[in-house]
Recover the amino acids of this structure.
DNA sequence: ACCGAAGA
DNA sequence: TCTTCGGT
């Protein structure tokens, strides 16, 4: 549905497009699109496609396309380093700008090229003037545009798979800021992309806290005395700079005084020149689309209207929910309820509402996790009452990447009898439909006994967070930064040029073209690879290679961990990750914003990195991890006597495998032989074939095949297990884990051998990896419910696939560690023991 | 094999 | 979107 309808505009809105953003995005997103003579057309294509969609769906009357001009802007005059690290426009993109402007002209769209200011400034200035007369929709993704939000100004990004609309209201509920405070906020936090440093150690949480107390930088300066001593020392050295930073972020609202809205009127009376233009650049699909749109005046909203719309009641008389099926949608602070064909709106969550809903038979919601975050009162509704629509869909097909309500609704639209503008009634109906499907697939126990109860545990873990040692982070970062600076000069010298070492493209050019090193490995895309594996093989060819490898590891450390993490801490220096329970095809959790499941552990810097994650004063971290859980599951499922025996005796499994493979006593196994056995053990869990194994072990294809054959003849029951999994996958088109989790693998019966082979590997890996995920999820529930852990004041902080990290009062740490291992090893009764290793420490490194 | 983040 | 690299 168009924005006009959704937002109920009464006057024609004007759309202002941040052209530069889309031009760049298109350029990187579609690197290979070219005309047959080689002229690059990728950026043009993306922009034109975006406009086509916008014209078709929005039917705008006024639209302006704004591009950055060439020269420097006033911001460069304010600060030299501004956007210094951003490269100048690549040649392949620059050549597309003129033709693009020409095309837009023929399309009847007004373009504005900014000079001395950036495109965003033009957008802000025009929005500021036009908003008095009509709604303004800023089309773009730059977060700095949020400062323009107003009752009549909207920010919209339709280019992603899921469009993003920010209104004044949604901004307020999400940000706890007024749009006008955005520049003040950015000045404190900094912005790496624009090279605005911000204040070290001040992340979003701190900045929001400060702005809550002092609404502007001026107020902050004037009230400086009222800050705590710690805050004063942190802020003092930067108090002058932040005013400059704010000027860089603040968009101008007073340029383009001579533009009037009438100039932005779309004029598509004659499209023939534009169609010729599309021909000239070989945009055939776009031409078809425009020719079609030109021919018929479409009027369809594109939305299938089933059921009749029911006007929602503004509820102060509560409906009787007892024993009924209910659907619920959260809208900002408010709540929308649907039952028995009626919808009710409430301004906020309240005790009486929660009590009424608690008597329902079931409440279908798009995401239970969101509900629990919405208000603490929701915890009072019995867990068994909730029905999580996203979760249900995930269990039915874990390979959809999008479990948003809209996607699911549209997928089921054929079977819905509700109006799309009655989302709560729709949710209720979807709940009914999906319940039937879950029953048919035998997913109810998995849903009710594992996945749904896990959600409040995940929320607790996220809210607990884990504490960072900020001093240690700062010292670490300073060291790494200094080494990086030294390496940069060394590399430029050794290579004989300066270039962007972070760019694999430029690096490949320098190494393989300029220095004449012969590349051996290729990327999946067919270009010469500069990965660690590829570079290590070339280490002898040139001294610069080793410097580059070292630069890579340090840069990774800096950019992924050392720099971003301290910015995310709250008042107590704790970071709060998101544990996503609908993210993986195998049933594992994933962690993001920040990802705490890939914090380095190995190598020169791993222990030091994990040492920066600490327990709060008076507490210890207790970490417990399953030992070889996936191989143990393989042992249990295959019933292979060698594996069962090795685990029963708690032997070194890789050494034992090596002994079988090389026909030696386990004591006589060499390190290299153990390494090979380890690689093949892991490889087979991934369903790895001989090519990949050979590559990893440096063997020829023939040797690798023999090696695998030897493995399977020694571990014959593993072989039969593999073929059984494959057979079952063929027969059902899916595989199932111990807890009844299912992954669909339609490709396993494909005539395309590659696809079938890929599906075969997924089948094996999913059974093993997914079952391991079931085991630890069950353990998490048991840990959460354990009275002793509760009594000792333990809190669960992290899950890293086979590991749990708890924070515990120091005096109880040993007791908790012991209890934890008992719980974790006891969740499933397998044919092998589930061994658990654990440790205690003041930080995560020690606890290992 | 399964992820997420950063950079271009 | 692709490449790379950190984790399991």
């Amino acid at each position: 549905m168009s924005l006009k309808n959704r937002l109920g505009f009464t006057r024609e809105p004007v759309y202002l497009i941040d052209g530069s953003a889309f031009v760049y995005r298109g350029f990187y997103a579609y690197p290979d699109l070219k005309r047959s003579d080689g002229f690059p057309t990728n950026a043009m294509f993306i922009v034109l496609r975006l406009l086509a969609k916008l014209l078709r769906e929005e039917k705008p009357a006024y639209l302006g396309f704004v591009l950055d001009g060439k020269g420097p802007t006033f911001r460069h005059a304010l600060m030299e380093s501004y956007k210094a690290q951003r490269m100048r426009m690549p040649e392949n993109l620059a050549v597309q700008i003129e033709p693009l402007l020409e095309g837009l002209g023929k399309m009847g769209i007004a373009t504005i090229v900014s000079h001395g200011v950036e495109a965003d400034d033009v957008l802000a200035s025009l929005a500021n003037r036009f908003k008095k007369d009509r709604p303004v929709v800023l089309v773009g993704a730059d977060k700095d545009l949020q400062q323009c939000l107003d009752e009549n100004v909207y920010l919209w990004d339709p280019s992603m798979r899921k469009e993003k609309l920010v209104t004044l209201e949604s901004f307020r509920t999400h940000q706890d800021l007024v749009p006008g405070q955005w520049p003040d906020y950015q000045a404190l936090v900094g912005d790496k992309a624009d090279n605005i440093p911000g204040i070290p150690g001040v992340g979003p949480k701190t900045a929001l806290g400060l702005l809550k107390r002092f609404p502007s930088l001026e107020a902050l300066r004037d009230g400086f005395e009222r800050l705590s001593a710690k805050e004063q020392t942190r802020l003092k050295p930067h108090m002058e700079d932040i005013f400059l930073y704010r000027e860089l972020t603040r968009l101008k609202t007073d340029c383009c005084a001579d533009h009037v809205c009438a100039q932005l009127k779309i004029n598509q009376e004659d499209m023939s020149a534009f169609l010729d233009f599309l021909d000239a650049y070989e945009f055939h699909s776009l031409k078809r689309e425009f020719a079609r749109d030109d021919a018929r005046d479409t009027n369809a909203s594109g939305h299938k209207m089933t059921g009749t719309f029911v006007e929602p009641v503004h509820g102060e008389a509560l409906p009787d929910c007892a024993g009924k099926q209910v659907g619920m949608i959260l809208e900002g602070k408010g709540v929308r309820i649907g039952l028995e064909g009626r919808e009710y709106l409430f301004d906020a969550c309240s005790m009486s509402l929660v009590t009424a809903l608690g008597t329902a038979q079931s409440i279908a919601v798009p995401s239970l996790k969101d509900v629990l975050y919405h208000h603490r009162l929701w915890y009072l509704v019995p867990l068994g009452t909730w029905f999580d629509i996203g979760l249900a869909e995930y269990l039915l097909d874990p390979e959809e990447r999008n479990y948003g309500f809209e996607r699911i609704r549209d997928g089921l639209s054929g079977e819905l009898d509700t109006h799309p503008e009655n989302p709560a009634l729709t949710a209720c109906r979807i709940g009914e439909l999906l319940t039937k499907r879950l029953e048919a697939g035998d997913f109810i126990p998995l849903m009710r006994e594992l996945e749904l109860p896990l959600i409040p545990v995940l929320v607790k873990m996220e809210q607990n967070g884990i504490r960072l040692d900020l001093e240690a982070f700062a010292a670490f970062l300073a060291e790494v930064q200094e080494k990086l600076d030294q390496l940069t000069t060394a590399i430029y010298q050794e290579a004989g040029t300066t270039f962007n070492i972070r760019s694999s493209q430029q690096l490949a050019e320098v190494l393989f073209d300029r220095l004449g090193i012969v590349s051996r490995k290729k990327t999946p895309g067919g270009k010469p690879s500069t990965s660690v594996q590829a570079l290590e093989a070339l280490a002898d060819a040139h001294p610069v290679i080793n410097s580059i490898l070292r630069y890579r590891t340090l840069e990774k450390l800096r950019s992924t961990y050392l720099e971003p993490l301290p910015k995310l801490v709250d008042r107590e220096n704790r970071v709060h990750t998101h544990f996503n329970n609908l993210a993986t095809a195998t049933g594992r959790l994933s962690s993001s914003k920040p990802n705490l499941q890939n914090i380095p552990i190995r190598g020169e810097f791993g222990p030091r990195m994990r040492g920066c994650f600490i327990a709060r004063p008076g507490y210890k971290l207790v970490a417990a991890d399953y030992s070889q859980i996936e191989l143990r599951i393989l042992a249990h499922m295959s019933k292979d006597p060698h594996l069962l025996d090795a685990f029963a005796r708690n032997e070194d499994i890789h050494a034992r495998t090596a002994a079988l493979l090389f026909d030696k006593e386990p004591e006589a196994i060499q390190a290299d032989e153990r390494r090979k056995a380890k690689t093949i053990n892991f490889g087979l869990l991934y369903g790895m074939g001989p090519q990949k194994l050979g590559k990893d072990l440096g063997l020829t294809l023939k040797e690798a095949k023999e090696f695998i054959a030897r493995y399977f003849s020694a571990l014959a029951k593993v072989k039969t297990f593999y073929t059984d999994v494959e057979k079952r996958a063929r027969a059902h088109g899916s595989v199932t884990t111990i807890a009844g989790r299912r992954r669909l693998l339609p490709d396993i019966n494909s005539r395309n051998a590659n696809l079938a082979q890929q599906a075969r590997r997924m089948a094996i890996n999913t059974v093993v990896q997914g079952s391991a995920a079931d085991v630890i999820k069950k353990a998490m529930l048991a840990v959460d419910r354990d009275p002793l852990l509760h009594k000792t004041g333990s809190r669960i902080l992290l899950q890293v696939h086979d590991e749990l990290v708890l924070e515990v009062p120091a005096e109880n740490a040993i007791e908790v560690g012991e209890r934890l291992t008992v719980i974790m090893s006891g969740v499933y009764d397998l044919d092998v023991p589930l061994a658990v290793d654990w440790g205690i420490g003041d930080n995560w490194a020690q606890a290992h």
User: Anything to note?
Assistant: The first helix of chain A runs from residue 3 to 7. Residues 619-627+774-841 of chain A form a domain with the Alpha-Beta Plaits fold (CATH 3.30.70.370).
